[in-house]
Structures are given as C-alpha cells and as structure tokens.
C-alpha cells in the first residue's frame, strides 16, 4: 500500500518535475563537462583543465566577470531601493492608488527588446532628451548618450524593467504587515525610520530576498540590453559566452557558462544572506 | 490629516506626470516612427514626421521576415501552452492533493529553470542537440525548451488550484452518489478553471516573448517576433521598421496580460503576475 | 490635576461621526473602562488618546499638557492591542525590550527592566522564544510586559482579553488589575464585555453612538442606570414605559405600566410625566409583598444553576426574571414582587 502510494506520487511527478530535473540536469552537465574538455564536437575529447586555465588568465574574462557583477548588483539594489518607498506609499489604498500602481507596473508588460528600442529613441543623438537638454541650455549641442561607457543607460533600463517586479513582490509583503504591529512600534516610540528598519524591512525580508535574487540573476546574465544599449567597450558574460559559441569554441563558452551559473548561485546566496543579516540580525 | 492628504495629492500628480514621460513619450515616439513615410525622412527640426503613412506597416508585412516570424511565434505559443499544461497537471495534482516527505524540496526543484540563466540553458541545450544530432529540428527543440522553461509557472499556479479544491466538496459529491466525472465537474473544475486559464495565458505570453532560446537554438533561419525585432536593432538598424515590430510585439501582449490579470485575481492574488 | 483630560472631542471620518463631543477626566492611578457595543466609538477614543488619530475638534491633555498633534511615538502612553501586535520576527525578550531600545536606554538598564517585567508577567522561561511558539495567554502577557517595560504614564488596553478562552480571561483580569495597581498606573481599558468592566474598573464610561451615556463607579452604573440604553446594555434590565400618577408617600411614586400599577422609590422624583422605568431580573422576589405584586404565567424557563431564568407573560407585556429556587414549570401561574427601591426612573426619551 505504502509502496503503491510512493510509486503513484513518483509517477505523477515524472512529467513535470522529472522532466525539469532531466533537462536542466543535462544542460548543466553538458556545460560542466564541456568546460573540462569533454563532448567536443570536433577533435578529441578528454579531461583537460586547459580551457579554464587559459580563459581565467585572460583580461577579457576578468573584465567581463567584474562588469556583469557590477550590472547585476546595482540593478538589484537600485530596483529594490526604489521599489520600497513606493510599496510603502501604496500600502494603504487611497483615491487613485490603483491608477498609480497600474502605471508603475506597466513596464512589466513591455518586452525587454521593445523597452531597449524605446529607450534608444529617447536618448538618441536627435532624440527628445537631447533636444530638451539643448533647449533648456544644459547641453550646448546634442551629445552621444547611447552606449555610454559607465553603463548608466543600461542600469537605467534595467531598473525601469525590474523595479515594477520588485514593487509587485514588496507591495504584497508590506501589505501583509498588520496595522496593529506598526501601531505598536509607533506607540513604543519608534519613528518612521526605526519602524522601517526594525519592523517593516525585517518582516518583508523574504520578498526583498526574492526580488534581489531574481533581478540579480537576470541582470547578471543579461544579453539583450547589453548588446543593444550597453557600452560597446565592455562585454557581459552572456555576450562573451555567445561570442565563443558563434565561433564554435564550445569549451570556452562552457567555461563562461559555468562561471555564470556559479556567480548566479554565489551572488544569490550572498545577497540573500546579506539582506537577512542586515535586517534581521541573524541568518535564521 | 489634511496635510497628509495634500501631500498624497501632490505626490500623485508628480508621479502621474513622471509616468506620462516614463511611458507616454516613448510610446508616442514608437508610433510616430512607425508612420514615417520613406518619401521624406524625419529630421530633428520637425516635431512630427513630415509625411505620415502606413507604408512601413505594409512593407514590413510584405517584404520582411515578419510573416514567418508571426507564423512561428503564434504556432509555438499555443502549442507550448497546451503541452505545458498537460505536463504540469500530474505534478501539480501530486503537490496539491498529497502529503509526502520532500514535498517542499520538490517545489523548490520545480523552480530550477527560472534560476539557470536563459543564455546558459539556450547554448548548452543547443550543444546537447548537436551531440544528439537533432539540431535540425528547430521548431520541436524550441517547443520542448519552452515547455520546460515555463513549467515552473504552470506547476506553481496549478498546485495552488489543486490545493483549493475542497475535500468536503468531493466528499459531499460522493455522498450524494456522483460518478467520477460528475465529481470532477462539481468539485474540481470550479477550483481549477481560473488556474488552467491563467496557466495557458502565462505560458502563451512567455513563449511569445521568449528570446534566448529562440535566438540561440533558432539560428540560423528560424525567426520569431522577438528575434526579428532584435536583429532589426542590430547591424541593419532601421528605426521605422523596428518601431513597427515593437508595436506588433507589444500590443497583443498588453491585451493578453490584462485578461490574465483578471484570471489571476480570481486564482491567486499572490501570483498577480507571471513575469520574472 | 487629572491624568488625562478629554475636552469636547469630536472625531469625524468623512460623514461618519465616530466620537461626538465627548469630555471626560481620568485621575492619576485610576483604572477606567470605556464600555459599549461595537461601533460606539470607544476604540476611536482610545486611538485619539494614544495619538494614532487626531481629533477633528477639541483637545486632549495628558499630565496637564496639551498633546493634540503630538505623534504616538512621542506620547508617554503604551497600548495593549486586541491582536497583541507582537513583532513576529523578534523573540519575547526583544519584543519586551523594543520600546527601551527606541528610548536608547543603556544596556544595563534594559537588562534590569527586562528582568523586572519578566518577573511581573511571569515569562522567565520564554524569553528566547518567538511569539508563534507561545500560547494565547502567554502572548497576551508578552504584550502586557512590552507595554509595562517602557514605564508609561498611561497604559491603554484595547479589548486585550477578547482572544482568550473564558477561564483564562478571568485569571488575566486579576493579573492586569494587580499589575496596574502595583505600578500605580493610570489605565484606560476598552471593552464590550460588561462583566469585565464591572469586575475591573474604578469607574466605567458607557458609550453609545459616539456619545458618552453615563459614567460612574460599577455599582452606581449597575444600580442606577440613567438611560434606557445603559439599563439594557448592562445586565439587560426590564425597561417599561410608565405614566406617572402621583406621589403616594415620602419619595414614593405611583406609575402605571404595561405590567400594571407600580410603586417606584426615588429621591429626585420623575423628570417627566411619561418616563421609562427599569428593574433588574434578579431583584424579583418569589411571592407577594406590600408593594408591586405581579401575577404572571411562565412562558419559558431555563435552569442556570444558581438561579433560574424565567420569561413570563404579565399584564400586557413580557418580562424576564431570575429566581434563586423556582420549581415553576412552563405554563404555570406564579406570583412575584419587586421592591419599590429596585425600580428606577430613567431619563425621559428625547
């Protein structure tokens, strides 16, 4: 009977979770194996550290790691930092709050590539931003704002696209905190900042972690924004990996791919742990 | 009280203004660019394009890869939606109606496709296809990858739906002598329906929008609307064409998302959006 | 100087008036109750005192200082919430010390106060636990301890016992009363439970529809309800519409009611010719007496242990009485009487 039940459950899980495990497992396995020289499409296969050694020795690799971490980290932090005050503002419904929240969340409906295109239009050399700046006299003449070296435009777009997602998660979490609990804190002498720091943030830390992790991984592995509006003198990891793949250098692509997965994992854990330590003062 | 009220009003007006700039101006630009007639280019000294027509729309329709892209996207998406639903249902049933050790772990494992970066999945899935010698079946490869990529959403939503099926409804139906089908109709379906609709819509939208897999696995030759738009932003950047493609990608999704929002509200407020 | 003065306070939400021209004083060390049905404005009044709401009109003074406009965090009050409102992410110790941290007290003093308070509310073994690991009664004590730890000038209770089961409720009543007495705290206690109010308070303020109906010591409110509402709400008295016939003796008045002619004892006399009168079910006496003997038919009987509840038809009305030992069955004819001093004139209807 018990055995039958276990078998039934396993059978039920197979087409869903089973498929996921098999597929994602195969993908991760291939990536790791290829980074160590196995499964070569051309030439010999066999264990080799050569690809890791040559690639990690390269400046371009280190630059690309640093750059992707920079984009991932700041996209996540800025999106969440911007979403928090808005979530608190929208905690209680008021006249027009639904409209506000709909406007704020609208970028969720806009595809990333479309967003990149819209952004290009606005900041292009003859775009409205440049015209406005020249008209107000802040700029003497139109400037080239596209693909700026510090990736400010890219970060702006990342935040534009991801902030609504953070807002969605945080609004739910912040609304779940009862008025009584906030009142109790206030009654015991906690001002606005103390209420945020000691009560609101610790109680919404799970949503904060989820937002940080998901935005971080997305931005870390970004390809489309980087190749359309990112700095031309930098390469993101996904771009670097695609570069190798297009030249048939699967082993090099695999090294970058495994790096990307490892950074996602480590970065996510670090961000989640940091958020919890800062706002809860303990890890559990 | 009064001051707070006024503050809120002020904040709101400021916010709506910013958002008009935030959304309205970029979109107006996109629409205007899509209407630029090639007879006369839109130069920065003009506020509006000097000549406007639907030429770009017609051109895009007749001469670019738009038709195959639309065909591919809109065959892929509904197929992926239905297949994902079928694949996810047994798992969601198990997670929603049974208690077993490791259930929480199973729920976490189901989120794996969301955590592995899309380009990593795309590239090494392609590699896998080459290893297996299946790289020429692009449509089916992308379909399979989409199903797996969006299974987490389907499993999540349907699990909640199955949890909401009330045991006392099932028991009452049995007590009153209902056959399995009647039981399904009266106890399961009302709880499942919003979840099923939401799953179909979410997978549909996600599949239409998906870029990494379609771009990497589809190379060369297989286009979907996002990959076509992406290439129009690349080497042969043509602003009016890109504007047309942007709007084609955008408008149906906005409509679908609005429908989705209604379903999700009735299914589970916590999942108010499937985007991630 | 009263500890708290509420002076002609009005609180309006849009068109709804939750508190309507209420004035009251609470003396230092006094334990007062705001008693009334839900929606009577008692919780709103408490929120006005704690500072979560600002009055539309009027002002509030604490320790003789006008606190209108002062936010809750700057008021020397502490509140015990109906939901307890414990911080779920903090341990019992951290919950209790929360207010002390906000006051930036030195660590040594925080420790001392924590030790003091945990002794008072008997939570010694639970300090490292999280609130969700405690029972309802224990959570209630944490909420009380958290409020006591800041040594407030005024402690405010918002129906703190309504989530406890009946037996525990009686015990916590005594604890709350003992602690407030020991600390010499001024307390305002909001409840809709009349027995809680009668058992705990130095003074009761009965509220209805945003207005103050009557205030006084528990015995006075019980014995001498002034309005139809107070008579009915506290101890569900029998209220009858009476017409005054005249004075028939020293402080003794003759009235006619649906129950028949009655003699009412009153020092002040009736305020109008048509006036409601009230008497309490437990004041009925078995058998005939010199005044107010009533013949009745038992319509419904329910045995309650130390008394028997009877619903009877008498005169042209239905009344409720409680007799200590009555063998009367349903349908039986009984005779009972009410002493004139147990019947009270109420305020005439507006």
Task: Report a brief summary of the structure.
The complex is a heterotrimer of chains A (284), B (276) and C (350). Chain A is built from 13 helices and no strands. Chain A has 284 residues and is an all-alpha fold.
Tell me about the largest β-sheet of chain B. Answer: none
Strand content of chain A: under 5%
Molecular shape of chain B: globular
End-to-end Cα distance of chain B? 38 Å
Distance between the termini of chain A: 38 Å
Low-confidence stretches of chain A: none
What value does the Rg of chain A take, in angstroms?
A: 23 Å
Kindly report the CATH topology of chain B.
MetI-like fold
Number of helices of chain A: 13
How do the SSEs of chain A run, as a string of H and E?
HHHHHHHHHHHHH
CATH topology of one domain in chain A: MetI-like fold
* Largest sheet report of chain A: none
**What is the number of helical segments of chain B per DSSP (H or I, 4+ residues)?**
12
Fraction of residues in helix of chain B? over 70%
* Name of the top-level CATH class of one domain in chain A: Mainly Alpha
**What is the beta-strand fraction of chain B?**
under 5%
The succession of helices and strands of chain B, N to C, reads HHHHHHHHHHHH
Radius of gyration of chain B: 24 Å
| Structural class determined from secondary elements of chain B | mainly alpha
Largest interface: A-B, 76 and 79 residues
Question: Explain this structure to me?
Answer:
Chain A is an all-alpha fold and 284 residues long. Chain A has 13 helices and no strands. Helices cover 74% and strands 0% of the residues of chain A. The model of chain A has no long low-confidence stretch (mean pLDDT 88). By secondary structure, chain B is mostly helical. Chain B has helices spanning 2-34, 55-63, 66-97, 103-109, 112-115, 118-132, 138-164, 167-175, 180-209, 212-218, 225-232, 239-267. In chain B, α6 (118-132) runs parallel beside α10 and α9 packs antiparallel against α12 (239-267). Chain C is α+β, with helices and mostly antiparallel strands and 350 residues long. Chain C has two domains: 4-227, Rossmann fold, CATH 3.40.50.300; 236-345, RNA polymerase II/Efflux pump adaptor protein, barrel-sandwich hybrid domain (OB fold (Dihydrolipoamide Acetyltransferase, E2P), Beta Barrel), CATH 2.40.50. Helices cover 25% and strands 36% of the residues of chain C. Chain C is built from eight helices and 20 strands. In chain C, α3 packs across α4. The radius of gyration of chain C is 24 Å and the shape is elongated. Chains in contact: A-B, A-C. Chains A and B meet through α1, α4, α5, α7 and α10 of A and α1, α3, α5, α6 and α7 of B.
């Amino acid at each position: 009977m018990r055995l039958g039940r276990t078998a039934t459950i396993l059978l039920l899980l197979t087409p869903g979770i089973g498929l996921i495990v098999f597929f994602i497992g195969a993908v991760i396995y291939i990536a790791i194996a290829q980074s160590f020289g196995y499964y070569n499409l051309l030439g010999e296969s066999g264990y080799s550290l050569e690809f890791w050694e040559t690639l990690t020795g390269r400046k371009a690799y280190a630059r690309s790691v640093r750059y992707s971490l920079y984009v991932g980290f700041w996209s996540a932090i800025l999106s969440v930092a911007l979403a928090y005050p808005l979530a608190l503002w929208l905690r209680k419904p008021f006249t027009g709050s639904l409209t506000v929240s709909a406007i704020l969340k609208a970028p969720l409906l806009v595809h990333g590539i479309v967003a990149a295109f819209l952004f290009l239009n606005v900041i292009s050399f003859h775009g409205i931003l440049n015209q406005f700046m020249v008209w107000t006299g802040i700029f003497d003449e139109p400037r080239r704002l596209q693909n700026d070296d510090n990736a400010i435009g890219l970060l702006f777009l990342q935040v534009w696209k991801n902030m609504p997602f953070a807002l969605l998660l945080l609004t739910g979490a912040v609304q779940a905190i009862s008025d009584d609990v906030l009142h109790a804190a206030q009654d015991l002498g906690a001002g606005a900042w103390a209420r945020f720091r000691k009560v609101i943030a610790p109680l919404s830390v799970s949503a904060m972690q989820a937002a940080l992790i998901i935005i971080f991984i997305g931005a870390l592995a970004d390809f489309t924004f980087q190749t359309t509006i990112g700095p031309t003198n930098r390469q993101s990891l996904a771009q670097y990996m695609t570069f190798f793949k297009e030249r048939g250098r699967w082993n090099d692509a695999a090294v970058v791919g495994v790096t990307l997965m490892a950074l996602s994992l480590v970065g996510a854990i670090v961000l989640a742990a940091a958020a919890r330590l800062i706002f809860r003062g303990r890890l559990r | 009280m009064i001051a707070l009220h006024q503050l809120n009003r002020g904040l709101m007006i400021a916010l709506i203004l910013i958002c008009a700039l935030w959304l309205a101006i970029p979109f107006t630009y996109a629409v205007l660019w899509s209407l630029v007639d090639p007879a006369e280019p839109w130069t920065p000294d003009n506020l509006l394009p000097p000549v406007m027509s639907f030429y770009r729309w017609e051109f895009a329709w007749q001469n670019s890869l738009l038709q195959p892209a639309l065909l591919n996207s809109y065959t892929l998406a509904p197929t992926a939606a239905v297949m994902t639903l079928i694949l996810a249902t047994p798992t969601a049933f198990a997670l929603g109606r049974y208690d077993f050790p490791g259930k929480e772990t199973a729920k976490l494992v189901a989120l794996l496709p969301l955590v592995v970066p899309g380009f990593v999945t795309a590239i090494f899935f392609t590699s896998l296809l080459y290893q297996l010698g299946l790289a020429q079946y692009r449509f089916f490869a992308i379909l399979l990858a989409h199903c797996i990529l969006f299974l987490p959403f389907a499993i999540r939503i349907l699990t909640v739906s199955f949890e909401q099926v009330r045991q006392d409804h099932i028991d009452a139906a049995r007590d009153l002598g209902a056959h399995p089908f009647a039981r399904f109709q009266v106890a399961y379906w009302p709880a499942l329906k919003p979840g099923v609709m939401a799953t179909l819509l979410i997978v549909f939208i996600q599949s239409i929008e998906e870029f990494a897999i379609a771009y990497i696995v589809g190379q060369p030759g297989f286009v979907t609307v996002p990959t076509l738009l992406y290439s129009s932003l690349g080497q042969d950047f043509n602003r009016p064409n890109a504007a047309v493609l942007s709007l084609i990608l955008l408008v149906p999704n906005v409509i679908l998302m609005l429908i989705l929002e209604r379903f999700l509200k009735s299914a589970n407020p916590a999942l108010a959006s499937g985007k991630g | 100087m009263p500890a708290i003065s509420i002076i002609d306070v009005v609180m309006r939400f849009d068109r709804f008036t939750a508190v309507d021209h209420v004035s009251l004083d609470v003396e230092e060390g006094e334990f007062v109750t705001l008693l009334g049905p839900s929606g009577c404005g008692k919780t709103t009044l408490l929120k006005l005192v704690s500072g979560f709401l600002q009055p539309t009109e009027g002002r509030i003074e604490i320790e003789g200082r006008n606190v209108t406009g002062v936010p809750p965090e700057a008021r020397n009050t502490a509140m015990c919430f109906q939901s307890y409102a414990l911080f779920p992410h903090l341990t019992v110790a951290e919950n209790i010390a929360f207010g002390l941290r906000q006051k930036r007290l030195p660590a040594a003093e925080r420790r001392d106060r924590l030790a003091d308070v945990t002794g008072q509310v008997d939570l010694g073994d639970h300090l490292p636990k999280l609130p969700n690991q405690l029972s309802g009664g224990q959570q209630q004590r944490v909420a009380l301890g958290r409020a006591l730890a800041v040594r407030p000038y005024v402690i405010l209770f918002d129906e703190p016992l309504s989530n406890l089961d009946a037996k525990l409720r009686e015990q916590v009543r005594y604890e709350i009363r003992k602690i407030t007495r020991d600390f010499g705290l001024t307390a305002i206690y909001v409840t809709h439970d009349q027995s809680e109010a009668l058992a705990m308070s130095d003074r009761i303020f009965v509220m209805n529809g945003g207005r103050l109906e009557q205030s006084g010591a528990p015995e006075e409110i019980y014995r001498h309800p002034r309005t139809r509402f107070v008579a009915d709400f506290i101890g569900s008295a029998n209220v009858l519409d009476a017409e005054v016939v005249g004075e028939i003796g020293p402080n003794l008045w003759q009235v006619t009611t649906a129950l028949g002619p009655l003699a009412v004892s009153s020092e002040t006399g009736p305020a109008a010719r048509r006036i409601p009168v009230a008497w309490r079910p437990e004041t009925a006496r078995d058998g005939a007496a010199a005044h107010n003997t009533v013949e009745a038919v038992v319509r419904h009987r329910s045995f309650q242990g130390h008394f028997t509840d009877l619903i009877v038809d008498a005169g042209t009305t239905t009344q409720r009485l409680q007799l200590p030992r009555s063998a009367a069955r349903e349908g039986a004819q009984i005779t009972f009487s009410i002493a004139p001093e147990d019947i009270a004139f109420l305020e005439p209807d507006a």
